Amino acid sequence: MADLATLQTRLEQAEEALHALRIGDLAAKVRGPDGRSIEYTAGTAGDLRAYIGELKNQIAALLGQTRLTRAPIYGAF
Questions:
Q1: How many CA atoms lie within 13 A of 5 on its CB side?
Q2: Closest CA to 15 of 65, 56, 60
Q3: Does residue 13 lie in a domain region?
Q4: Is residue 46 part of a domain?
Q5: Residue 20's CATH number
Q6: 14: in domain
Q7: Using CA atoms, how far apart are residues 2 and 25, in angstroms rounded to an integer?
Q8: Which of 16, 35, 40, 43 could bond to 48 as cystine, CB 3.0-4.6 Å?
């Protein structure tokens, strides 16, 4: 597992990429844990959200916290 500073940087980048997709950018790139760039699009935004959740869980684990995650619920009610 990466150190806290690295995980926080990755989380910031991933959240910025998700924001870019949400405001209409066609694609956003994030540097993955192996150093490669990963391009996300509106069609793969769910994968990006999952990655953000994984990063938050890893950060919580390093801080000795428990973080329970569940998938977001989308759609009209």
A1: 0
A2: 56
A3: yes
A4: yes
A5: 3.30.1580.10
A6: yes
A7: 29
A8: 40
What is the extent of the structural domain holding 55? 4-62
Q: Return the structure tokens found at 72.
A: 């977001």
**pTM score:** 0.76
| Tokens found for residue 46 | 């769910």
**Two tokens, residue 53:** 């959740």
Strands (E), the chain: 27-31, 37-41
Per-residue pLDDT 10s for the chain (77 aa) are 789 999 999 999 999 999 999 998 889 988 877 888 889 998 999 999 999 999 999 999 999 887 655 555 555 54
In this structure, are residues 60 and 52 in contact, taking their beta carbons and an 8 Å threshold?
A: no
Beta bridge partners of 37: 31
In a domain, 77, yes or no: no
**DSSP 8-state assignment for residue 18:** H
Domain count along the chain: 1
